[in-house]
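User: Please predict the structure of the protein below. I'd like the answer in structure-token form so I can feed it into my own downstream comparison script.

Assistant: Understood. Taking the following sequence of 449 residues as input:
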Amino acid sequence: MKILILSQKVRLKPAQVLVLGFAAVIFTGAILLSLPIATKSGKSVGFLNALFTATSAVCVTGLVVVDTYTTYSLFGQLVIMLLIQTGGLGFMTMATLIFFLLGKKITLRERLVIQEALNQMHISGVVKLAKYVIITAVFFELCGAALLSLRFIKIYGFLKGIYYGIFHAVSAFNNAGFDLIGNFRSFTPFVEDPLINIVVMCLIIIGGLGFSVIHEILTIRNFYKLSLHSKIVITMTAILLLTGFVVFFLLEYTNPKTLGPLSLSGKFLAAAFQSVTPRTAGFNTISLSDMTLPAKLFTIFLMFIGASPGSTGGGVKTSTFFIVVLLIYTVVMNKEEVEIYSRRIPIENVYRAIVIVVISLLLVLTVTFLLTITEKGQDLLTIMYEATSAFGTVGLSLGLTPKLSNIGKVLIIILMFCGRVGPLTIAMALASSKKPVLYKFPEDRILVG
């Protein structure tokens, strides 16, 4: 009775519900993965390792301290796949599905949380969008699974091939990066396989666009009639993918440990895949640790930007970075308003973008600094690569994750959680309620630059 009264008195903000909801899903997954039945050896991996894996799955990151295939049993792998699906679509989207199945009505308060979870500007149509998210995800995952199974069945047999197709389709569409190839190899054995490369890349790109953008593309089918948000997301995504392909192709073309030994078509595939996967996907077809220094640095840049708002990916988001670039252009050109595609971007959006980038940068740098203390013997680039990968919920690694100390694991867990939920969402969840301002201080100027 006391608990019921307390729950009625305590009114959580949508941001707080999101943070607590993701945390609850992670801890539930950690408990399941720490059970002996979850491993092939019948021995628990330990709660911290289970918590790391559960966080990585729910936050659709893909960083792992133990190899997924060789360590976890079928039960453990299915738990990971369910956590990936829940984390990718958002726990409120999954909750909406359960409400529909049970015939429960969705209240205004629940609609507000769905609005926050799907990163929508208006509350109208959020339930309809949640339905669309579920249908879209299932459709693309089934298509991807069917195509991937064509290759995996030939290698692993019928049942295992279908299972591999489903697991990797779910992992790719949700930008998770978990694989069942074994021994931390990811898709390196399939570096020149056009079917696997193209299907996985398409799933990653579609999942990273954002469901509202996918909906507009499929229904409007005219770039000039799309919303400003969709135009910016598509433009930025295309620029990053094309730039990434050219940069990786040129930097790694003669590298004997990456693209060097491949055929010309293999070089194109590998460069394209490496351009797509830092967009929070986490798969790799070449040895990341053997890449050139400039290529590693450029990967860090792509991982920090990440996918798009309302998608299955993380990072500061493409539209956020685009607005910051536009702001820089506006200031340099001495213009008064931030404009693009004959539209003016509200100052609130600009403030929000700047705050997200600054908080994200501070988070990555802070954790990088702490990891240089806890992970002795590791070079700065490797540590920063790992931290950025965790924040961007990417999952690419230079081999540091399995060697992390216990404190290092906790730091990466925190960073993955912040990257998936969003640093601004967490800040809003911790902040006190907004109070009306009854007065304003006099304005004054300071020297800048």
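That's the full token string. Residues 1-9 have pLDDT under 50 and may be disordered.
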